[in-house]
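Exercise 3.2. Students should predict the tertiary structure of the chain below and write it as structure tokens, then compare their answer with the key that follows.

Predict this chain's 3D structure.
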Amino acid sequence: MPQPTYNGFETVIGLEVHAQLATRSKLFSASPNQFGMAPNRNINPVCTAQPGALPVLNRQAVTYAIRAALATNCRLNEVSIFSRKNYFYPDLPKGYQISQFDKPIAEHGWLEIEFENEPGTRESKRVGITRIHIEEDAGKSQHMAGYSLVDLNRAGTPLIEIVSEPDFRGPAEAAAYLKKLRAILQYIEVCDGNMQEGNLRCDANVSVRRIGETKLGTRAELKNLNSFRFLEKAVEYEIHRQINVINSGGRIVQETRLYDSARNVTQSMRSKEEAHDYRYFPEPDLPPLVVKPDWIAEVQATMPELPSAKAERFVQEFGLPEYDAKVITSDKALAHFYERAVAKSAGEPKLVSNWLMTEVLRMLKESDKEIEDCPFPAEHLGNLVALIKSGEISSKIAKTVFEEMWASGQEPAVIVKEKGLVQVSDPAAIEAAVRKVMQNSPKNVEEYRAGKEKLFGFFVGQVMKETQGKANPALVNDIVKACLKGEK
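Answer key:
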């Protein structure tokens, strides 16, 4: 498989993904785990580090971590240890974060990804997952002009950190992995995956080396990337920045950098810490976490359908091509939209797929929206397909109806009725239109009958124009052919 190269250099990229677990309460306390509350409302003595407050582990958070490990082919460790990760920051009340260090809950997993390093050339590879560990989140600092405020609503929120091997050789591969990982976490219902709200965040470790070298280059960590597009753009910029530094005789320093999306640059934030800087030691207030085989089996028995399984089912159940099935199931909400539409489509799953993958996804991309923001429900798309199948509207009219659905959110049947878009399927009415077109174009009729059969499309087009695009295309073709041959 050819690797992307940059003027004699190659890249080595690894990702650290922080996924906020969708539990009702925080990792070590009963404080609510909710987004969007007023500052400092979801807090209690544990997550604000009051003297004497002790952590109690949330069992559901561990169950979700087990799910994530199973879904990413990781090996679960029967015993894992929580540790204190010591560092000072204003939104970290304890002065340390409870995390897992040398004994995480899961290790040695993998995911298969598909991507395009070059447009039109699809590739696949297996990406290694080093580890998954459980940890609590910090709070959030809000910086104002001249002062800063601290909101501790997020402090103590349960996270899993999923650390990949440095297996990526380009931005497209990294983005494809993050997309697949996000989809899996959504499918297994452990994380909402809403990157705008921060419940899925990604750090990228980027280094470059000259082609042929085996030693890894010095890496820079790009912190808190919250969209697929920003991940690709930030990594691409950082690759070129490091190459320019090396080519100009400079030296890459190990540091943490932030991505400025407005200027499309990365900027130094701080020097990158090593593990010893955090002075890890086992958390004395928490016993070792023991995950026995019966707990794993219990979780395995209740695992929701994964994207790969759903794609395979769509191929078998709906007769979709493998490519269609993979695109549709790449996002849980998109797959759910599709299934709801199919249920209303009068048995036309492939036609629903065509409309979803062309018109719906095109409009979403143009308006920079997600499927959850579609202005009409999935059932409307299914009803539109059913109208096409019944012959009530043509595919051409359906595009007009679709545009109105997108603009107004109205039911397709209502649009068809109000706009007078019902397809003309009366043979007599269509024949009358054909006769009128032939009367208006006697020379073309004569040339067609003399052997210029390419004019057939002209007559069909004129009939469709005469009927304002409402005539049944199949009937138009049959009747035009019969009339021109003198069979009618």
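Discussion points: The first strand starts at residue 9 and ends at 20. The radius of gyration is 29 Å.
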